[in-house]
Target: N-glycosyltransferase
Amino acid sequence: MTISQALIDSFLWTMAILIAVPLIVFGSECLLALLRKEKQRPLERVPSDDDMVDPQSRPAVDVIIPAHNEQLGLVRTLDSVTAAMRPGDHLYLVADNCNDDTAKIASQFAEALVSSNATIGMTVLERFDLENRGKDYALRFAFDALELTNSQEATTNIGSATQPDRVVVIVDADCKVWTDTIDRLAIQVSRTQRPAQACYLMQHPDSVSFTAPRALSEFAFTVKNFVRPLGLTRIGGGCMLFGSGMAFPRHALKRLSGPGGHLVEDMRWTFDMILAGCPVQYCPEAKCLATFPTHIAAADTQHRRWEHGHLQLVGSQVPRLIRGWIRKPTLASFLAALDLMVLPLSLLMVTAFVIGTMLATAAWLGYAIGPLMVWAIAMSVAGIGLGWAWSCFYPRRATLGMVFAIPLYAIRKLPLYTSFIFHPERVWIRTDRN
Model:
């Protein structure tokens, strides 16, 4: 074997391992999730008597809703959230850099609660700072208000019995929550003293035509936010934070990194909690639902922010998790690093196809065949997991023929990924949901 052939074989093995690891992790997560007895779609599952919760057993909750120009759908969200709250809970709505009637509508809703003698409270916070835009700044503004309230309560209640630590739940302004969602999150957080993430899914509205790209985007979101977290939980792993349906013990807010205009601040907080020894726990019975944008341009903007943010985190957080694991080896940090290495589904499939073609060509030319075999095994694991997930959780309006559109769907998203190399998204842009 010549030196050049040895170098090429080493390169082929490196490429095979680099793609095999995320493929096997992805397939294993799907297969582990699907080993459960019940195969109902997550939003259709009706809790059994054993799954029922006692709302009297949970601590009080502070709910935060960050909102930027959300006047059209805000009342729907406020109705669903307040219906899930209990006496003693408090709702904070942050109208962040709004130039519409978001703050006015929220204030009117708060006044209606007072006039109806509701047993929950509501505070509307307005924030104006055009230099520091983004959801993480709005949430930090709400956290500061909570800290001030907590200090005032501590001063007022000196000498009285200590109250259980309140739970903080974050819900996006375009989401609907189930009536038991806040109860389930609060009970789990109170029991574990760790952050919790609800089952947060997105669907396309019934008013739009259900095309293959829409079906595949909805399925990919279900795999990412329901199937994979469920599988990771089965082997002792934590869960990513998804941005809505997040819950924290109030004391844990101090461990979250400060705002920096990140595209996916919620995913970044996931790793803050892991390295602090409090990995996020999945709570699949708590449900939270939003709808995809109806316009293609708005949907592209949303996907661009999500997937560029994910790729940025791979570069910044995987090394951080590895350093944390070296200092203090934990299963949570190891599994989180592996999970983060799984690229967005379309990019993972395209990358695997390109590398597989390269490995097959090299084997045909007489170079090492081992890398191709490793790739084939990894692709089989991922393919079986993905196929099984589709058979159980394909979108309700999807047809079998839509499966064959997967290659075209992945190719259509290639410009999104190539733009990450030349023009990565840096600034948070609100998704137009009209």
Summary: The first strand starts at residue 61 and ends at 67. The two ends are 63 Å apart (CA to CA). The domain at 57-154+162-300 is CATH 3.90.550.10 (Spore Coat Polysaccharide Biosynthesis Protein SpsA; Chain A).
